[in-house]
Design brief:
The chain is of the alpha/beta class and 221 residues long. Helix content is 42%, strand content 17%. The chain is globular.
Length: 221
Amino acid sequence: MIDLHTHSLFSDGDLLPSELVRRLEDIDYSCVAITDHFDSSNLDFVITRLVKVARDLNQKQSVKVIPGAEITHVHPELIGPLVGQARELGAEIVIVHGETIVEPVAKGTNRAAILSDFNILAHPGLITVEDIKMVAERGVYLEISARLGHCLTNGYIARLAKEFGAKLVLNSDAHSPHDLMNRQFAQMVAHGTGLGENALEEMLGNSRDLISKCIGISIPL
């Protein structure tokens, strides 16, 4: 199993990175990205710490830990520069908090993210057809979310992604221990998109491909 969108207490999660990783190790995960929320106020604090703890944990634990970051509720015009700064500080996977229908995300966030050098557009809500086409053209990954509220548009996102050839990844957006998915639950969330019984394997394959492109390593599913 792979999860590329999780949070620790470096932003609004409940767990230390080490506890998060240990819990995932116990349910047979192979890789996790810790992607705490950031804007310009906490950029250096969050990413430098995640880079350090990932380096430490990767020496001892079986779960590959990727230091990442999630740009959250930032004005669309600031997204591109923040992606660059996150990369410079060592974030290997950069997520943008998309236009979910359950939060007042600024309009234009999805488009600004797609035009930047990032990796995953999280919970993009009722993303437009035009933006979906750009996602497919630019090789951006769209998130199918297991998180309460954000998951409400999973079916819509899955349908458009299938129609226009956009790639999907399944993530927990975990903030607490009860948010973490075992494989059985992940299978149900993936199947609930309407994409069929093989949807989970396809999305995990996309996650593995993303890791290979970003970091140059191969991760088992």
